[in-house]
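re: the backbone from monday

yeah here it is again, tokenized this time
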């Protein structure tokens, strides 16, 4: 593993087995189905895709909030998937999570002081007298004051609650934070404030983010690299600017075409995908996207596409970019 790589995910799978009754075989839901990627120190790496594609499950599996079915997860060279509970708990001080719903992720029975004190107490950080000052300092960093310490979560707005959730993750000064749709439940006017707060915290504490979202306009603003997921698989990985300027996979093109225009004079050709997203219980044979792809070939229906790597590190899993198929390669570039 590269010395600059903080997180490595290799052939990760997370399957759920669901019982259907005494006389029926159990069904397998392939929520995450053999994905690989790496996150470098100090960068913001995004996982993007439609709801149900496996983004959030990937984040929870990396932290082992849910156990992986197969694959490797390495954090700073240490195999997370093999760690016994005690060592995993110690490692979680360095790997934290910001959850999607600021209303559900904070204990309604606890004050803000208690919520922010808990991670310091659990991980035995700082002396008793220092902890309160640490909490007050963290509140000031996120734009709140000491006066809020004895209030309860229901007394705050959604944006303020998410700031508290972020403070809870950052107070341990971790190396790595998984942000699972951290602004999707917030008003648009508040989203930018929370995003800017996360960027400021990244600079101040040297954080590395895995940013999970379906909002491509947010992804474009704050991430360095992007992995596009579809039906439990990664179909494309690229630097953010490369992905938005020259998307290669047909699914990525459709996602980017759906981003709302920022100015009335801007024109955009919308790519409308037909059909429904297949079920992860019974994914299509071959390329998972072929049932909705406007460029699908016969090979797509039967063979899983291999990864094609370009000079700039841009990767795509699509038969249209098989270098042996010059005609296919030209077809995708002509659209």
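seq for it, each position gets an aa:
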């Amino acid at each position: 593993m590269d010395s600059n790589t903080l997180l490595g995910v290799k052939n990760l799978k997370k399957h759920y087995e669901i019982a259907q009754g005494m006389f029926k075989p159990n069904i397998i839901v392939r929520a995450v189905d053999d994905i690989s990627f790496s996150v470098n120190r100090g960068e913001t790496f995004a996982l993007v895709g439609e709801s149900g594609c496996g983004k959030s499950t990937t984040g929870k599996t990396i932290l082992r909030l849910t156990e992986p079915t197969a694959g490797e997860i390495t954090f700073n060279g240490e195999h997370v998937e093999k760690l016994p509970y005690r060592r995993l708990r110690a490692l979680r001080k360095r790997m934290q999570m910001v959850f999607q719903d600021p209303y559900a992720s904070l204990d309604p029975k606890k004050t803000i002081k208690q919520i922010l004190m808990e991670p310091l107490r659990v991980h035995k950080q700082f002396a008793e007298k220092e902890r309160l000052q640490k909490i007050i300092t963290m509140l000031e960093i996120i734009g709140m004051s000491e006066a809020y310490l004895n209030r309860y979560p229901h007394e705050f707005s959604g944006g303020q609650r998410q700031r508290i959730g972020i403070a809870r993750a950052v107070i341990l000064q971790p190396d790595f934070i998984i942000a699972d749709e951290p602004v999707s439940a917030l008003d648009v006017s508040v989203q930018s404030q929370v995003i800017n707060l996360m960027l400021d915290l990244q600079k101040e504490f040297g954080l590395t983010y895995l940013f999970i979202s379906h909002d491509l306009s947010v992804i474009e603003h704050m991430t360095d690299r992007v992995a596009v997921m579809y039906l439990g698989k990664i179909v494309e990985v690229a630097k953010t600017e490369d992905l938005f300027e020259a998307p290669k996979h047909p699914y990525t093109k459709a996602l980017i075409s759906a981003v709302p225009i920022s100015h009335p004079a801007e024109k955009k050709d919308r790519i409308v995908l037909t059909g429904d997203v297949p079920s992860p219980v019974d994914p299509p044979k071959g390329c998972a996207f072929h049932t909705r792809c406007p460029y699908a070939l016969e090979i797509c229906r039967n063979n899983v596409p291999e990864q094609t790597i370009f000079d700039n590190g841009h990767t795509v899993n699509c038969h249209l970019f098989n270098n042996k198929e010059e005609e296919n390669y030209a077809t995708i570039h002509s659209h």
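Confidence is low (pLDDT under 50) at residues 329-335. Residues 105-171 form one domain.
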